[in-house]
Write a structure and sequence with these properties.
By secondary structure, the chain is α/β, with parallel strands linked by helices. It has a single domain, classed as TIM Barrel (Alpha-Beta Barrel). About 40% of the residues lie in helices and about 20% in strands. It has nine helices and ten strands. Strand 8, helix 7 and strand 9 form a beta-alpha-beta unit.
């Protein structure tokens, strides 16, 4: 078993333990393997080890990898998700690659996704990114404005809200991230109560390598793990 498979096995075990503590079914939690600066062989190893969702931060890097790998590696299917910020000028290539965009964070971006998706003859599945940190330097809609933005987006016919995404701020102790994840879950629940998500399963994308166990305990249905699977990365991927 290679290093990627061993790390992935450990992550799965820890997710299972966190789900058990919260009385949840571990099958309700999906791993998004974040492959920023990961070379192609590392991505292949993750897919061979059972990863079915690849998360990329940047459209350009994803474009090169997607061209090389597509949606199947050695007979194993994989979906591609955008987990980083989406610029309006990158919407078209993003919709050509990603089945889910985690980072819809403004009405301006929603309108551009609507426009491009209509031209492409498709519907874009998105998560509403919420800035639970309260820091203006972070991406995401202000928590107080999240339900209002969800109402606006739900009226679009080419953008479907499938849930929410949040990134907790860096904290000294992992437990200190809990209030931020709880806030994200509560906002997601309020949006769901208004019937603003598309029919089907509601996704709550939150938790990364340093805090995913607390996120699972607080209701995450997707955790975005990069370093925990691939180890530290200091440079651009060589493709």
């Amino acid at each position: 078993m290679n290093d990627v498979a061993l790390r992935l096995e450990s992550i799965r075990r820890r997710i299972g333990e966190a789900a058990a503590r919260a009385g949840r079914d571990v099958r309700d939690v999906e791993i998004v393997a974040v492959t920023k600066n990961v070379e192609l062989e590392g991505v292949r190893e993750a897919i061979r080890a059972g990863v079915s969702i690849i998360g990329e931060n940047r459209v350009q890097e994803a474009k090169r990898k997607f061209a090389a790998l597509g949606t199947s590696v050695e007979g194993r299917s994989c979906a591609w998700h955008l987990v980083g910020h989406l610029q309006t000028n990158k919407v078209r290539p993003a919709l050509e690659i990603f089945s889910l965009i985690h980072s819809l964070d403004s009405w301006k971006l929603a309108c551009e996704v609507q426009r491009v998706a209509e031209r492409m003859g498709r519907v874009a599945e998105c998560l509403l990114e919420i800035n639970v940190s309260g820091k203006p330097s972070r991406f995401g809609v202000d928590p107080a404005e999240a339900v209002g933005l969800a109402r606006q987006v739900s009226a679009l016919d080419r953008v479907r809200l499938a849930g929410t995404m949040a990134i907790a701020p860096e904290v000294e102790a992992t437990e200190d991230a809990r209030p931020y994840f709880r806030m994200a879950r509560e906002i997601c629940d309020r949006i769901a109560d208004e019937g603003l998500f598309r029919p089907g399963r509601v996704h709550l994308s939150m938790g990364m390598t340093q805090d995913f166990e607390v996120a699972v305990e607080e209701g995450a249905t997707m955790v975005r793990i990069g370093t925990g699977i691939f180890g530290p990365r200091q440079r651009e991927a060589v493709l």
